[in-house]
Design goal:
With 498 residues, the protein is mainly alpha-helical. The protein folds into 2 domains: 189 residues, Fumarase/aspartase (N-terminal domain) (Fumarase C, Chain B, domain 1), CATH 1.10.275.10; 292 residues, Fumarase C, Chain A, domain 2 (Up-down Bundle), CATH 1.20.200. The chain has 20 helices and 9 strands.
């Protein structure tokens, strides 16, 4: 049975990530009451002719054009169709589910004014895994991504279910839903806010959190092969640096390397190790600290209303407020920070890979090859890691500074939160691959070491787990196949010490 996330108050990034991974989403009675209350206010705004952006006016630079009540349904429908102009390959299934979950959570705050029926339709599609096809390119913020979801609700656009692409109308029929006729404000609310960025950011955090553990594990396995100090990550000296992340990494490394007779034997070869080995707690720890700061921002955004306008008051005293809550500046900055942190973690992993394969510093056979000269071993896969580090360096340029002017100067500064989250996910994907390459190289080095003195019990277990999936490498198969195998493994598992 699938896990179910109950939406009562604000969702957290972990809950969004759980829905992205396949959990069902269910709203509490209180959440439904908030949605219905906001719709009552919106209906009262319409009935009383109170001007509200996107309710009875045009949008963007057309915000001063008043729309007659008879045309407000057409306005909502037209917003969805005209804004559905994204291009490129579609988002993946987890990314789509994350965006939809964040969108529903935004409506459930009770300030958007969409109908209960609209949210119920979104929930039915999400929980039925009947997912809109969302083109990943063409949005400076959120509009095109969200419009791709909204168009399916009205029977337009495309959706997929069980690997089958179908029209929006076919998708609704499969879900047992009629095409939605969006009322006043619903078209605007369905394309508005930061759910695209918060959904993708939640997924990025979940993926980074898992990779933080694997990065420490890979670093420990590499250190045991190359390190020259018996107690390099001693607790007391590390406490002199004030960083929660550093302390966590130091503790992890001590546990991974506890009982290593190999390190005891190598102690004293050098006064201190090179930075890619010695600074593991400082660099991995800084990444963990950055992760914690970004996670706080994303949870704060998920607890915020990011629609514009918002409706408040009551049906007897309705109010509408046009502010800029849909602008995702905080998310853009946070995702840029997470991207840089992930790129840094990728870079130090590649530096350790280089030391493993380089006979000038490793003390191991050149390129970890099974037969020097005849076999190239891990020579070229280090190139792959270096290429991904370079790609991350390019991707890490801040999206939040891209700027831009749209809608005839009405939207004259852009913060690019969704593109920032998108490129952070790309960097995280490269990070995962480079960590896999380090695990493979460190396991190969482990095999090339003399079997005595024994390794640490925890690293020996890690080595066995890798070897249970891929063999010692003898230039006998494409290395990228081994990378794929281990990547699938770490994508669904965490490293364990026993």
């Amino acid at each position: 049975m699938s896990e179910t996330v109950i939406l009562d108050g604000p969702l957290t990034w972990r809950e969004i990530a759980a829905v992205a991974g396949g959990a069902n989403l269910q709203l509490s009675d209180a959440a439904w009451q908030r949605i219905e209350h906001a719709r009552d206010i919106t209906d009262a705004l319409v009935a009383n002719g109170i001007r509200g952006y996107g309710i009875n006016t045009g949008v963007g630079a057309l915000c001063d054009v008043v729309i007659d009540e008879s045309q407000q349904k057409a306005l909502s429908r037209n917003i969805l169709l005209s804004h559905a102009c994204g291009v490129g390959d579609p988002l993946g299934k987890p990314e789509t589910r994350a965006v939809m979950a964040a969108q529903i959570a935004n409506f459930a705050h009770g300030y958007s004014g969409v109908r209960r029926e609209t949210v119920e339709a979104l929930l039915t599609l999400l929980n039925g895994d009947i997912l809109p096809v969302i083109p990943a390119r063409g949005s400076v913020g959120y509009l095109t991504h969200a419009a791709a979801i909204g168009t399916v609700l009205i029977g337009e656009g495309d959706a997929r279910h069980g690997g089958v692409i179908m029209t929006g109308r076919e998708a609704l029929a499969r879900a047992g839903l009629p095409p939605l006729v969006p009322l006043a404000k619903e078209g605007l609310s369905l394309v508005n806010g930061t759910p695209c960025a918060t959904g993708l950011a939640s997924l990025a955090l979940a993926r980074v959190e898992r990779l933080l553990e694997w990065a420490d594990a890979a670093a420990a396995l590499t250190y045991e092969n190359l390190g020259a100090q018996a107690d390099p990550f001693a607790a007391m000296p590390l406490t002199l640096r004030k960083s929660p992340g550093l302390q966590t990494v130091g503790d992890n490394l001590r546990r991974w390397l506890d009982g290593s007779e190999r390190l005891k034997q190598s102690a004293g070869r050098r006064t201190q190790d090179p930075l890619s080995l010695r600074a593991i707690p400082q660099i991995h720890g800084a990444v963990r600290d950055a992760f914690a700061q970004v996670a706080e921002v994303v949870d704060r955004e998920l607890s915020s209303v990011t629609d514009n306008p918002v409706v408040t008051g009551s049906a007897s005293a309705p109010e509408v407020h046009s502010q800029a809550h849909a602008v995702g500046a905080a998310l853009g900055l946070a995702m840029d920070a997470l991207a840089v942190a992930a790129a840094e973690l990728t870079a130090i992993s590649e530096r350790r890979i280089d030391r493993l394969v380089n006979p000038l510093v490793s003390g191991l056979p050149a390129f970890l090859a099974a037969d020097n000269g005849v076999c190239s071993g891990f020579m070229i896969i280090q190139y792959t890691a270096a290429a991904l580090v370079a790609e991350n360096r390019r991707l890490a340029a801040p999206a939040s500074l891209d700027g831009g002017i749209t809608s005839a100067l009405q939207e004259d500064i852009l913060t690019h939160a969704t593109p920032a989250a998108d490129k952070a996910l790309a960097i995280i994907g490269n990070l995962e691959t480079v960590i896999v390459i380090e695990l493979l190289a460190a396991a190969q080095a482990f095999d090339l070491q003399p079997q005595t003195p024994p390794a640490a019990p925890a690293t020996a277990v890690l080595h066995r787990r890798i070897r249970a999936r891929v063999p010692y490498y003898r230039d006998d198969r494409p290395l990228n196949g081994l990378v794929k195998e281990v990547r699938q493994f770490i994508g669904t598992n965490l490293p364990t010490l026993d």
